[in-house]
Amino acid sequence: MTAALPPVAIAENLRVSYGKTVAVTDVSLAAIPGEILAFVGPSGCGKSTVLRCFNRLNDLVAQARVEGQVYLHGVPIYAPEVDPVAVRQQVGMVFQRPNPFPKSIFDNVAFGLRLGRPLPKSELSQRVEQALRQAALWEEVKDKLHQSALTLSGGQQQRLCLARAIAVQPQLLLLDEPCSALDPLSTERIEHLLRELKPALAIVLVTHNLAQAVRVADKTAFFNVEAGCGRLVEWGPTATLFAQPVHPATAAYTRGQFG
Ligand SMILES: Nc1ncnc2c1ncn2[C@@H]1O[C@H](COP(=O)(O)OP(=O)(O)OP(=O)(O)O)[C@@H](O)[C@H]1O
Ligand SMILES: [Mg+2]
């Protein structure tokens, strides 16, 4: 059913360089609503670099240069007239290390909502509660919403970051190894949440954990370093990529022969 929906985001012939060095090239793929797309591949193959193209976060990285195009709902986000701040407001992002702001739990989740059109207090509280419920954190924090977010455990902080990212109801959610600093139970909770969230949006998930890609991703993209440069080798339905990869490097990587 979802396959018929138009993609939320399309990357077209992306190439990203840092200074004179091309970090990753030949990247064309699409993220579809209702699906999780995983990026896998050895360290340094450009997964994070490509992920940062989807919300123009590389604009903030010194010396980074992006060629090619990314379309968000058909809008070319690297067109000169596009405001990168407006792009970032439409795209949620969660990083490897939980990075709550040094503010209260409530203010963390309300942060993005307060950047948009002003909401009545009751609606703001309701949206914060809804995001915390979706991130399966509400029951643990409902009596201490005004406590500092830094007092939460690592797993709770990561769910808070997820709540902060989804509070603005983005249609694209970018996750860069969101579970790599978490214990197995917290990881399982995040994976469960991603499955619950995905009907409403497109998710791109960078992971070093191949078993995680198999568990949660509808599609998987395999990146590799070839001749000193990151490349998208192939991408498609996760089951096909793992069972019938087209390229020998994909087969070797998914069998754990390097990485
Ligand atoms: N800010 C930067 N300045 C210069 N080079 C960079 C920068 N960020 C990344 N690179 C280089 O770009 C290439 C791709 O890096 P990137 O972080 O995207 O890889 P990755 O696949 O996410 O790796 P990992 O799995 O270790 O997170 C690497 O060669 C890296 O050294
Ligand atoms: Mg990375």
Model description:
This protein is α/β, with parallel strands linked by helices. The chain has one domain (2-100, 171-254): Rossmann fold (3-Layer(aba) Sandwich), CATH 3.40.50. Helices cover 35% and strands 26% of the residues. The protein has ten helices and ten strands. Strands 5-4-1-2-10-9-3-8-7-6 form a ten-stranded mixed beta sheet, sandwiched between helices. α3 (105-115) packs across α4 (121-134) and α4 crosses α6 (154-166). It is globular, with a radius of gyration of 18 Å. 43% of the residues are buried. The model has no long low-confidence stretch (mean pLDDT 95). Magnesium ion (MG) binds at residues 47-48, 176, 206.
What molecules are bound to this protein? adenosine-5'-triphosphate, magnesium ion
Low-confidence stretches: none
| Quaternary class | single chain
Distance N to C terminus: 35 Å
- The CATH topology is given as Rossmann fold
What's the SSE pattern?
A: EEEHEEHEHHHHEHEHEEHH
Total strand count, please?
A: 10
Mean pLDDT: 95
Spatial strand arrangement across the major sheet: 5-4-1-2-10-9-3-8-7-6
CATH architecture: 3-Layer(aba) Sandwich
What structural category characterises the helix and strand content? alpha/beta
What is the count of structural domains?
1
Describe the secondary-structure layout:
Elements: E1 9-18, E2 21-31, E3 36-40, H1 47-53, E4 64-72, E5 75-76, H2 84-90, E6 91-94, H3 105-115, H4 121-134, H5 138-141, H6 154-166, E7 172-176, H7 184-197, E8 202-206, H8 210-216, E9 219-226, E10 229-237, H9 238-243, H10 248-254
Parallel strand pairs: 2-10, 3-8, 3-9, 6-7, 7-8
Antiparallel strand pairs: 1-2, 1-4, 4-5, 9-10
This protein binds adenosine-5'-triphosphate and magnesium ion (MG).
Magnesium ion binds next to helix 1.
